[in-house]
Amino acid sequence: MAKDANGTQLNDGDNVTLVKDLKVKGAGATLKRGTMVKNIRLTSNDKEIEGKIDKMGVIVLKTEFLKKA
């Protein structure tokens, strides 16, 4: 069961926001705190999700840096 930084359960299709700035490896960009990640998908690893970010496409993020919107 995937949980966000506050311990709230995450489900497929949820929208989440970032709780801190994150550097994206290979993209040379930084995702800013408060960035919306739409329509997440849970992965086989409870500590990671896949989500779509505007202008970046699909990205894998650790749940410890997310907050349910």
Automatic annotation (TrEMBL):
SUPFAM superfamilies: Prokaryotic SH3-related domain
Gene3D superfamilies reported for this sequence: SH3 Domains (2.30.30.40)
Pfam families xref list: YjdM
Residue ranges constituting the Protein YjdM C-terminal domain according to the UniProt record: 3-69
Taxonomic superkingdom: Bacteria
Record-given protein name: PhnA domain-containing protein
